[in-house]
Amino acid sequence: MAMKKRVLFVCFGNTCRSPMAEAIFKKLVAEGGISDQWDVDSAGTSNWALGSPPDNRALGCLARHGLSSNHRGRQITKSDFVECDNIFCMDTKNLSLLEQFSKDVANTKAHILLLGSLDPHEELIISDPFSGGSREYERAYEQCHRCIQAFLRLNAA
Hints:
This protein is an alpha/beta fold. Helices cover 39% and strands 14% of the residues. The chain is built from five helices and four strands; from the N terminus they run βαβααβαβα. The chain has a four-stranded parallel beta sheet, with helices on both faces. The mean pLDDT is 95.
């Protein structure tokens, strides 16, 4: 049996974009019948939302798409850089933080990428909806969905 590939989605607080991306990924691999090939999680570069559920607006957006999340906020750890194959972040600030964190980790194997680098619409940054309403959450959802679909197409066996 092949080892599962590990994917981690990262944003600042692990309350909006990254838990939405995690839920989207889980749904798409389930629909594709390949859930057994993937481990997926999400984390934040900060620790301000440790143990908290995703933002209510993120949960509402997911619900409108038939998804849910029981994720609890966590901060990225050194072991994530060793255990994950891909770490996808949402913006350049988090990319810079992840690259900085990874320098302190021996045996880093994770490829750290902007999730938006996979966007067929070429929107490099997954917009942060935290200061907005349902429209901003929907935009972030759509961006994540497109990028994850592109990633899964690239990784189809």
